[in-house]
Every structure is written in structure tokens, then in C-alpha cells.
Design brief:
Number of strands: 6
Shape: elongated
CATH superfamily of the largest domain: Cation efflux protein transmembrane domain
Structural class: alpha/beta
CATH topology of the largest domain: Alpha-lytic protease prodomain-like
Distance between the termini: 57 Å
Low-confidence stretches: 1-50
Order of helices and strands: HHHHHHHHHEEHEHEEHE
Strand content: 5-15%
Largest sheet: 3 strands, mixed
Number of domains: 3
Mean pLDDT: 76
Strand order of the largest sheet: 1-2-3
CATH class of the largest domain: Mainly Alpha
CATH architecture of the largest domain: Up-down Bundle
Helix content: 55-70%
């Protein structure tokens, strides 16, 4: 019996058990982004099912979008040439540009789901954001071209021969684009695809563009006024605005965006449900694509606990937070002694600083090391001088504890 007992107590055996648990966890849960954390896959192989469903949804809708836009572009181009309408021709060009969007969307979705490699261990999920940047660039280029044509058509209005057939075709195109946009947005929300949601939003913008083209046609048919150049300029401005928004939103995601305050407090609340956890701070979540969220958080525990007592709690939290919120979290530990008289005295001074300093959001991570060094973290808002706040706190601590050294770490809030 002794060899068997030795095996079960060995480090290799424990590692093996831990790996098996993590593999089972991967098959039972999925990872989702903050915007839709509650849409978690359930059941065996749930994550892989969601990956396939998401990819199929993007590809199917993109192919349908390519087909619809080609049909609309050819129809509008024919009508624009026959009626000599630059506004309708501009609308047709917009549909051709949309085809490029959908092709890029398909390629970006396929590339973003490549398996992690040694060079990119976090996977390729962020390629979807690069795809959005490429789409934004195409939109901006199309908007600039439309604006250039509009200036020429305003200075030298072209001849136009609109008919009610034009209005009917444009109205049908408007209805198709709006319905497609609504479908794409709802599907994107359901499958957690920001790309699909953007394509749906853009399709609705195209429906608005068709409305403007209809206004240009009706103006000519009813009042014999040619306003194609002005309508084309409005269309160009709309396209430029959409392109700018795409680039801005994508850059924000690449730079990193915080969790909402509500979601942060929900995660904190779950962690503090564990009896051994005194408090928790510094939650950071990094997103590496639609199905990859990795984060860290610091917890305060009693310094009298052993590593063997802390580890089961931390491991349990890692597993449950992954299943509940879809985030792989690494834990940092502050070992504190809340009953220590020196801890209580320093904590009281920190509370005083928080009340006197409007920019101070909170203080935590207070550790007294060897009776002569004070370590603490101070969270400040972004509208203050960190140097001045640090000097003020150092002076306050030196006033009350002249024999102690102070090490102050200035932090910011990582949530909204």
C-alpha cells in the first residue's frame, strides 16, 4: 500500500489530477466577453459548439450579404445610368463596398479562430478587431470618394431623368437592407459577435442612404429640382461618420476597455462569499477575442493561514469564476493581520487620508513587514497629480510613524 500512497501524494500525480480537472472544465463551460457574460454555453463540449455556431452564423450571413449587395448594386447601377442619377450611382457604389466588408468579415472570422501557437499563445481572437479596422478604412475611403464626387455634382449639377420605377426599386432596396440589418444585429448579439452587430448596424445605415436617394428622386419627379449633389454629400458624410466610428470603437477595444462597475462588483461579491477572504481588489480583465478573457485579482487573507489552507479556496474560486463569468483569473494574495495594533493604527491614518483627499478612491493591501516597513496600495482617480498625492500621504504617515519606512503603490481603477 505504501507505493500507492506515495504516488497519490507525489507532485506529478497532483499535477495530472489538476490538468484533468481543467480539461473537464474547458468542455463544460465557455468564455464570453463582458458585453454578454451571461450567454454561457452549457453541457458537454459547449465551448466548441459555440465556436462552430458563431463561425457558421458569421459566414452564412456574410455570404447572404454578398449576394444581396451584388443584386442591389447591379440593379441600382442600371437605374442610375438610365436615369443619369449620380445619387443612385453613389448608392450602388456603397453596395459594392459592402461586398468587400463581408468578404473581409468571413476571412477575419476564420483567421481569428486559429488554434493558439507558440508565437501567439493567447490565440488569434483579436484578428477580428484588425478586421474591423480594415473595414473602417474601406468605409472612410468610400466616403472620401463620394464626397469628392458630390463637390463636382454640386458645382455642376448633372442632368437627371428619374422615374417612379427608380423610387420603387430604391424603396425595395431600403426594406431589404433594413431587414437584413435587423437580422444581422440580433444574430450577432445572440452569438456574441461584434462583427455581425457592426454589419447589421451598417446595413441599417445603408437603408437610410436609400431613403436619401428616394428623396432625391421624388424632388426631381415632383418639383423638377435636381439635388443629387447635395444628397450625395449627405451620403458621403454619413459614410465618413460610420467609418470614423468603426475605427474609434475598434481602437478602443485594442487599447483595452474596463469592465462595467456592476459586473466588477458582482465578481467581487462572489469572491468575498468565501469565509477566508477578508477583501478583494485590483480586478483586471484582458480580452483576447470573443472567447478569451484572462484576468487577475488580489485578495486579502489572514497572514496566519498556511499555503495549504489558502490554495483549495483559490482553486475553487478559479473554477467557479470561470464557469460563472467565463474569465480565467489568477489570484494575488495580501497576507494581513487585522488584529495587529500597528495594522489598526496605520489603517486609521489611511482612512483619514481618504476622507481628506478627494481624489482618493480607497486604500488597501496594507502590510506591516518586520515592524518597520509599511506597504499599501492607494487608488486615485485620473484627474489628480499622483506625485502630490503620494507626497501628501508619505508626509501624513511619517508624522504618525516617524520610525517606519513607507512603500506606497499608486493605482487606478480598472473598471468604469
Amino acid at each position: 500500500m505504501q507505493p500507492c500512497t506515495t504516488l497519490r501524494n507525489s507532485r506529478i500525480y497532483r499535477w495530472k489530477c489538476d490538468i484533468i480537472k481543467r480539461i473537464k472544465l474547458l468542455k463544460q463551460g465557455g468564455i464570453v466577453i463582458e458585453k454578454n457574460l451571461q450567454q454561457r454555453p452549457k453541457g458537454k463540449n459547449g465551448l466548441f459548439k459555440v465556436w462552430n455556431q458563431r463561425r457558421n452564423a458569421v459566414v452564412d450571413l456574410a455570404l447572404l450579404g454578398i449576394f444581396l449587395n451584388l443584386v442591389l448594386a447591379v440593379t441600382k447601377l442600371v437605374i442610375g445610368v438610365l436615369d443619369e442619377s449620380s445619387a443612385v450611382e453613389s448608392d450602388a457604389l456603397n453596395n459594392v463596398t459592402d461586398c468587400a466588408f463581408f468578404i473581409i468579415a468571413v476571412l477575419g472570422t476564420i483567421w481569428s479562430e486559429k488554434e493558439p501557437s507558440r508565437k501567439h499563445p493567447f490565440g488569434y481572437g483579436r484578428l477580428e478587431y484588425i478586421t474591423n479596422l480594415a473595414i473602417g478604412g474601406v468605409v472612410l475611403a468610400a466616403g472620401l470618394e463620394a464626397a469628392t464626387d458630390a463637390v463636382g455634382n454640386i458645382s455642376s449639377p448633372p442632368d437627371a431623368t428619374y422615374s417612379w420605377n427608380t423610387v420603387i426599386v430604391l424603396a425595395a432596396a431600403m426594406a431589404i437592407k433594413y431587414l437584413y440589418g435587423h437580422w444581422a444585429q440580433s444574430t450577432g448579439h445572440r452569438h456574441n459577435s461584434l462583427l455581425l452587430e457592426f454589419l447589421g448596424h451598417h446595413a441599417k445605415i445603408n437603408a437610410l442612404v436609400s431613403v436619401l436617394s428616394i428623396c432625391s428622386a421624388i424632388s426631381y419627379i415632383v418639383w423638377n429640382h435636381v439635388i443629387d449633389g447635395y444628397i450625395e454629400m449627405i451620403i458621403a458624410i454619413i459614410i465618413l461618420k460610420v467609418g470614423f466610428d468603426i475605427v474609434k470603437d475598434t481602437v478602443n477595444k485594442l487599447l483595452g476597455q474596463p469592465l462595467s462597475r456592476e459586473k466588477t462588483q458582482e465578481i467581487y461579491g462572489r469572491i468575498k462569499e468565501e469565509p477566508l477572504v477578508i477583501d478583494c481588489h485590483d480586478l483586471i480583465v484582458n480580452n483576447y477575442g470573443a472567447f478569451k478573457n484572462i484576468g487577475s485579482v488580489n485578495i486579502e487573507v489572514s497572514r496566519h493561514l498556511t499555503a495549504g489552507e489558502i490554495y483549495p479556496v483559490v482553486h475553487k474560486l478559479q473554477v467557479e469564476l470561470y464557469k460563472e463569468f467565463g474569465i480565467q483569473i489568477v489570484f494575488g494574495i495580501y497576507a494581513i493581520d487585522v488584529e495587529d495594533p500597528m495594522y489598526k493604527a496605520v489603517h486609521k491614518v489611511l482612512e483619514q487620508f481618504k476622507e481628506e483627499e478627494p481624489s482618493c478612491i480607497g486604500c488597501h493591501g496594507l502590510v506591516i513587514e518586520d515592524g518597520h516597513t509599511i506597504f499599501c496600495d492607494v487608488v486615485l482617480d485620473f484627474n489628480t497629480s499622483r506625485k502630490e498625492a503620494r507626497e501628501k500621504l508619505e508626509a501624513l504617515l511619517s508624522q504618525h510613524f516617524p520610525e517606519m519606512e513607507t512603500v506606497i503603490n499608486i493605482e487606478s481603477e480598472f473598471h468604469q
